[in-house]
């Protein structure tokens, strides 16, 4: 594979709302900026596909602004290694990019949190965001019976979008008690845009039951999911379905920040008021610093981009705006924290690591994540622990802060190409 070398004053990893805002702010300040993302589109998962089917005015504004900013965009570029200070390697379809930077802004987003339960590996059991993304890409859901479960506002948003695509959403199940959901909803007067979004979604979901204080027990079916069993802690019942969209909010993507040495706090990247991490000249914005939504990510991205460009005065002017969204982030975290009953969903024979087919009774006797990996290969499959690692942290309290390159699966040719120009990236980084 070919290797291409580029130098930039500011490199932004991630082209979601935070990354786009950071790149715009820095490029418009006259800096030489590059933004890369492993997806073929701009906008991250939240604005996935907006270029072809514009539905969000905010997405279109930021897409147009980024295109006019002068920032160089590398799509389909997966950052997988940081072999030396101020150097990042990324795999593309045509080869390896070796990117040298003066300032690095990490806007790596978040992913869905999956908690294992009996039957969660059946075909047709997906994350809410995953099923939504598939439907936007053309996967046929029209006429299909869908049960949506888990926690967080994403459930209602996904149910709304699935219904718009013709799915028969029969039930939305939220694990948070009704009283906490109501308090969260009443507090949205402080954030009018969120309140309007919520009212619009609920109005479009009239007739779709929304049950709080409930959670899944198991999924069953012959060859694929056909029904799910749910409980409110007192009563248990089953619902027939063709798809079961189940996810327990989001967790920050912190693998790349960890790789370059950033410290974490409560599972998120630690940053100061200027979005600077504990590593010199490395900043972080958006969901890796805490799950707060697109609006919070946009203002954090702007602060990071302005700071990286040396415009700290302009950054400071946005602090009060960010504070409002940080209050929303705190309320979101408090309202939708996971109930302890969810730790009891698994049975001894429930698969926890679906990549390596490792069951709960195989790993629960170990003291920590590292010991479980060494003895059972839990977390050593294709997803590299991104699914089971977060689940194990919730189930057993294990911390997973050990990250090695490549942080994403890449072709062997990419590793060989990178090794020819980087003495610090050696074959022991290959994981088998």
Describe what you observe in this structure.
It is a single chain. By secondary structure, this protein is an alpha/beta fold. The chain folds into three domains: 2-110 and 251-334, FAD/NAD(P)-binding domain (3-Layer(bba) Sandwich), CATH 3.50.50; 114-248, FAD/NAD(P)-binding domain (3-Layer(bba) Sandwich); 340-396, no CATH class. The chain contains 14 helices and 21 strands. It has helices spanning 17-28, 57-69, 128-136, 154-164, 178-186, 192-204, 255-259, 294-308, 312-316, 319-335, 360-363, 369-376, 388-396, 412-421, and strands at residues 2-13, 33-36, 72-74, 78-84, 87-92, 95-106, 110-112, 125-126, 145-151, 168-174, 210-212, 215-220, 227-231, 236-240, 243-248, 250-252, 264-265, 268-269, 282-284, 351-353, 358-359. The strands form six sheets. Strands 1, 2, 3, 4, 5, 6 and 19 form a seven-stranded mixed sheet that branches. Residues 424-432 have low confidence and may be disordered.
């Amino acid at each position: 594979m070919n290797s291409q070398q580029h130098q930039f004053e500011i490199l932004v990893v991630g082209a979601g709302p935070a990354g786009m805002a950071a790149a715009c702010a820095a490029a418009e300040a006259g800096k030489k900026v590059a933004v890369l993302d492993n997806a073929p589109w701009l906008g991250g998962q939240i604005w996935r596909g907006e270029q072809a089917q514009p539905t969000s005015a905010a997405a279109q504004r930021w897409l147009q602004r980024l295109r006019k900013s002068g920032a160089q965009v590398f799509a389909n570029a997966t950052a997988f290694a940081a072999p030396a200070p101020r150097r990042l390697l990324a795999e593309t379809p045509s080869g390896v990019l070796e990117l040298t930077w003066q300032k690095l802004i990490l806007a790596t987003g978040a992913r869905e949190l999956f908690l294992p339960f009996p039957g969660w590996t059946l075909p047709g059991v997906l994350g809410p965001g995953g099923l939504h993304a598939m439907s936007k890409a053309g996967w046929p859901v029209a006429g299909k019976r869908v049960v949506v479960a888990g926690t967080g506002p994403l459930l209602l948003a996904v149910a709304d979008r699935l219904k718009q695509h013709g799915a028969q959403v029969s039930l939305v199940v939220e694990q948070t008690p009704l009283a906490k959901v109501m308090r969260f909803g009443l507090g949205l007067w402080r954030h009018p845009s969120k309140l309007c979004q919520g009212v619009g979604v609920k109005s479009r979901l009239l007739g779709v039951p929304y049950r709080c204080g409930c959670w899944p027990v198991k999924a069953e079916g012959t060859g694929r999911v056909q029904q799910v069993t749910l409980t409110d802690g007192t009563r248990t019942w089953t619902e027939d379905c063709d798809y079961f969209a189940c996810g327990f909010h989001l967790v920050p993507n912190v693998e790349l920040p960890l790789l370059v040495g950033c410290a974490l706090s409560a599972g998120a990247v630690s940053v100061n008021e200027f979005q600077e991490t504990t590593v010199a000249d490395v900043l972080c914005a958006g969901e890796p610093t805490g799950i707060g939504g697109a609006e919070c990510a946009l203002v954090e991205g702007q602060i990071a981009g302005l700071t990286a460009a040396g415009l700290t005065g302009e950054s400071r002017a946005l602090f009060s705006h960010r504070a409002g969204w940080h209050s929303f982030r705190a309320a979101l975290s408090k309202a939708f924290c996971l109930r302890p009953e969810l730790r009891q969903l698994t049975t001894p024979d429930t698969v926890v690591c679906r990549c390596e087919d490792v069951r709960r009774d195989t790993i629960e006797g170990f003291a920590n994540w590292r010991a479980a990996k060494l003895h059972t290969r839990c977390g050593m499959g294709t997803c590299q622990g991104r699914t089971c690692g977060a689940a194990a942290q919730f189930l057993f309290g294990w911390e997973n802060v050990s990250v090695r390159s490549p942080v994403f699966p890449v072709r062997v040719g990419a590793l060989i190409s990178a090794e020819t120009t980087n003495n610090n990236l050696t074959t022991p980084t290959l994981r088998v």
